[in-house]
Amino acid sequence: MKKSDRNGENSSSSQKKKSFGLQIGEKDVASSIIGGIVEKGFSTPVSQPQVTVLPFPVARHRSHGPHWAPRTSSSSIHDKDDEDDGEYGDHTDFNLVAANAKPIQRKQKKDLDLKQWQELTNDDNTTKKQHKYNGSAKPSDPKKESGNTNSEVPKSHKQNAGNVGIDAVESNLDNGTQSTIKSKDISRKVKVESKDEIMMDVGELSMPTSHGSTSMESEIDAENRARLEKMSTDEITEAQAEIMKKMDPALIKILQKRGQDKMSKKSSTSAIASIDAKNQKESVISETDNAQKMIKTNPNHSTTGLESKSNASSLWDAWSTNVEAARDLRFSLDGDVLNDYGNESAKGIYGSENAAERDFLRTEGDPSAIGYTIKEALALTRSVVPGQRALALHLLASVLYKAQDNICRNKTGSTLKIGNQNNIVDWEALWAFALGPEPELALSLRMCLDDNHNSVVIACARVIQCVLSYDFNEHFFNISEKTGIYEKDIYTGPIFRSRPKIDVGFLHGGFWKYNTKPSNIFPFNKIMRDEEGDEEEEHTIKDDIVVATQDILAGLVRMGILPRIRYLLESDPSTALEETLISILVAIARHSPTCADAIMKCERLVQLIVHRFTTNNQMGVDFIKIKSVTLIKVLAQSGRCKEFVDNGTFQKLTWHLYRCALGIDDWMNKETEKVKLWSTLLIEQLRFWKVCLQYGYCASYFADMFPALFIWLDVPSFEKLRGKNVINEFLSITNEAYLVLEGLTRTLPNFYLKKIDHSETWSWSNVGPMIDLALKWVSLKSDPELFTFLSLKKEGLTPMLWVISAVFHMLFGVLKSVFPEDNSKKLPWLPDFVPKIGLHIIKNELLSFNKVNKDSFFDFLSQCRHESDQETSLASVCCLNGLISVVVLINKLINLNNTENKVSSIEHDNITIHEKILTDGILECCTSEMTTFMKLTSSAGQLSQSVEMFGRGGPAPGVGVGWGAAGGGFWSSNILVAQMDARLVLQLVEIYFKNPSNEVTVERISCLFDLLLLVGPRDRGIMDKTLGILLQPSNLKFLDVSIRNSLDQKTFEWEYTEEELLTFSENLISHYKNRWLNIKKSKSKSKVKPSDPSSKKTRFSLDTIQEDVDQSIQSTLVTEWAHQRLPLPNHWFLSPISTVDLVNLPVKPTFPEVARSGLFFLLGLEAISNHVSSNSIKGVPVIWKLHVLSVTLFAGLDLLEEEKTRDVYSTLQESYGKILDKKISEIGSKNSIDFLKFDQEIHDSYTTFIETLVENFAGASYGNLLYGRQISMYLHRCVGGQIRLSTWNALSNIRALELLPPLEKCLSQEEGYLEPPEDDEMLLEAYVKSWVCGALDKSVTRNSVSFTLVIHHLSDFIFGDHVGDKVSLRNKLAKSILRDYSRKSEHEGMMVKLIQYKKPASYQQKLDQAEDLLLLPEIERRFMVLREACEGNATLLSIVEKLNNTIMKQQ
């Protein structure tokens, strides 16, 4: 194909044309660059593209070719370049024969007219696009729609667009304004014409077809209509009567109903089409319905598309719809979502045939006003022009950052609502789509990182930094380290829950797993495969893309991003690029142990970063050095601390701490920016030192670093700091300095230990001066300046609270080192600083004593918690935690003091008074503030459940930031504040419960349940302590009393003894710890050594080895989400009675022992549930409670042999039945159908569980009432139809229907089993099948609920009023039971009961309650129905008459 053919006549460059005042001629260099998007890596020059309108980058795929111009009907003009086309040239001269060429005539088919196929296809496509989402959450495929949409562009549109391209280029600078106006006018004209065309199509949709047919059915219909027009009315009536005689009456009714349905559909379709036509007048949005679902618009404005999401069957369907809809969202260069869908350019449907129209629409006015989709921006990253690649990457970075920002701004909990009518942008769905498989973001970024233009590499690095959520993650970790409470950080790798299994009763809350295996991050190299004789093919780019889809950071590491970063750092990059690259390394190191290990194993990478830190501007400070220290600190947390200390890296990166300290005045006189940089660097260096202290290293460096630390440990003059505006920086350094001292206290030997063998310990001689400095920061009464600073609540309040929190943690560490290892051991003497700290707390009124001082520091902190911003609230709660921890530990030390020994400075009497005052003070605060903080914890208890809404760690993949969960999920400050509140409440509750005089209350037990829902992977100790408090025998005794008080005294004539309650406590604590705190151990390594040639490993075995190596690093300071179960699901406390197989759990109690304890505990919770305001206990759905009772019986009947346990189980069944009845009464009986969807809520293979349960019931129960009640529950009308059908078939097949109890002894009320009447065809057929095969014979004599259900539902269905398909089904069922009656005379009683069955009077108020039998007219009516069902069959009619005579004799 010639270039002239591709470029059209506008490709001529011989004539000079003007575009916005620029002369574009033959030798113009700019004209050879503008507008051409060519794939990188092609050296062959292409022909000069013709500029159409504006020199603005337009994203298109490589297959679309260069910037083509439209062809016109005028003669072609070729330039000199076109004479030599190179390899694309066609030297055949067709111009000589072109005049004689004639078009090829297509053969016409006689039977099929396809003249108007294109118009009708467009009409059908338009209809599908407009109604694509009605009733379905699956979006349309734009790839399939693009081809059809191209043909919809009107011819006038194409002609005008082509003229615009020519006129715009010919305009000059003097006439620039006129050309702009002209372009806008023509654009408006094109829009109007295109709207008219669409309106014409929509109008045709609402009218009968009159343009000819495209199918055989349409032709037949046209012939029939033509024939009917020639017939008279009498002839038509006669023909109809003749047809009616030949057809079956039942078939006629079916056809009539079908015709009515078609007419109703046509009327609704025409109405919808008319509404859509009105909407089309406002905005042409036929191609952007998907994007419109996610855009926030005027609520009063009528929108299309979102209503389909409101009709989605589930949250997952709506979520999938939103993710698919993100494909069509368009963004400005600043990352804003554009809502201009009236413009055809927003469709993204243009190709090589209509590129000129696209360029015209994309470049009118402000070039950034139209925007790009994510896929268009990624396509633009492969342009040959560096500026275009950098522009696309800038857009991607803006979009992703804005998505993260909006996700974190939302409250914790998914923003996805099925009834979302406001068209709010679903940023979670956008984040999921961007990191999903379709855009292939990781591959594009990895390619751009290899670019040879610095601007593109920098832009790409910033996109990667944004994808890895660096800024938001570091903000979270920064606040987390300020608290000083968490000893460990947490890895950010995305994870998902393992599927629940029957061994644990299908309970949710399985082990977490990484989205991709750690072994997939490092593909097997060729050497390993050659050594093992593996002939499999090497991994391809597709394998890398698959891994990147699961985990984008793992995919980037697999694609070799680390060696590329090392190369860029070695090539002396710019400051901006180097800073961004180190930020990426920090994010990679925080991902997982495997990625941290990959950085360490990358040759020369860590050494290069340390070398650049020490050689580049040693006296200067910049962000590169700060982030370098952060990177080494994160790697040290992952278990590499010893290596950094041994090779001198620690000394090199912390040499600023060795410098002789300048005075505080000299520090404040520095420039503001330098002060901030220095303070940030010192903070990171102190945190690095603290990490080494936690590993037991570098404690001996205190003497060398103390001179530099002293100015930060002492209380400064706040007026000077405020005048220099550096108060926040000073206090931030002070906070970290005291946290370092807290780390040093962990290396202190026990105060009473005489021999100290370890050299890396802090000396007790240094502790006294540090305590004196620390107490200055809490001298609120003795230091007026400090008191005034806090009371004003001005700038610096939050950093000051962080400092006080660190001071309390440091004091707690010192006191903890005094505390003996054996709690019962008496102290030989009490150190002087212990009562000194206590008296300091008393004198400065840090607590409320004797209800006199109401303005204590405790009250001040409580006020800050409720009235301040998030960080201030968190700092205040940390202060409260530290204060209470110090006071509690002082009380314990005083109690352990040997009273026979006197303290040198304080008399024993004073110590007793001291103890009483501290005790009274903390208990006074406990009683006054516990209720308030319990309410805060209760309201936050459900926040953690949103993290697991869609399986893989939230609704979207990613790194940190809740893995795409709204509000940040467990990475949000909301959860962090709630967890701090939980720690505070736990301390208060622990103090309260340890006081024997305090009674156990319902609210305090409920509060402990709220705490457990907030426990994360780093809070295993908190859960252990909470379980110990919750399940202590005194609380179980309270539950025992509650059971007997809330239930009838006749039901329980017994009570549990102290020994039994103690056994229950031990069993439950052991079970819960092993069930929820158990860590999944790595698979055992093969006993055969790797060097053994006889051990030929497969690829799977290599995966296992790699994972074992990753987990071989022990005692790290970073916790993994993977391989553990926390956070807990809301039904976690049901596990004792639902865990059938405990093979993998090292527990001593057997299943019956644990189940008995669990049943008692569960009944106790039900007894107090009505008095609890929190949802942590009563908020568990009743479907889970009913399910776990079935799982308990799954293991057999041994559990129910004990009388007490049997009574508890029976009482639980009755309680859950009442809960079910209450729920049905709230939602209505009609709405309660299929309310209990076990196969959706519990497990998708629940039918298999039911079948196994029924087999056990038939084989071992022998008609046990409790077992039968539990099985009959699955026949309740509110249970899903599939589960009811499976239960019935299983019982019928093994002849166990007669084992079910009578209806009055079943769970729930009788009405729940009988109303509303059954209308499921498969269930009704199953009832009749059981009737015919004899499975119900014994159920009649035993008065089983199975026969009651059959006779009730069949009587209502057979003798009820039905039309259409129901009539044929009724006749079918009636014939079956009549034929069965003719063969089995013993079924005569069953038939008589069926005909004479009468609904209970309580359900049918119109009937006389005194009458037990049906009236004679009703019996005659029912026999008439049976005769109609026989459909003229003489044999069946004789059976009906026989049955009639039998009943009449009885009457």
From TrEMBL:
RPAP1 N-terminal domain: from which residue to which, for each copy?
Answer: 219-262
Note the InterPro entries from the entry.
ARM-type_fold, MINIYO, RPAP1_C, RPAP1_N, TPR_RPAP1/MINIYO-like
Q: Which residues form the RPAP1 C-terminal domain?
A: 328-403
Identify the stretch(es) annotated as Disordered: 1-25, 57-163, 169-188
Q: RPAP1/MINIYO-like TPR repeats domain spans which residues? A: 1218-1360
Polar residues composition-biased segments? 172-181
One CC-aspect GO term: nucleus
SUPFAM superfamilies (alphabetical)? ARM repeat
Transcription keyword on record? yes
Q: Name one GO biological process term.
A: cell differentiation
Q: What is its main location?
A: nucleus
Keywords (A to Z) from UniProt = Nucleus, Transcription
Q: Where in the cell is it found?
A: Nucleus
**The keyword Nucleus appears for this protein:** yes
Please report which protein family the annotation says this sequence is part of.
Belongs to the RPAP1 family.
Protein name per UniProt: RNA polymerase II-associated protein 1 C-terminal domain-containing protein
- Taxonomic source organism: Lactuca sativa
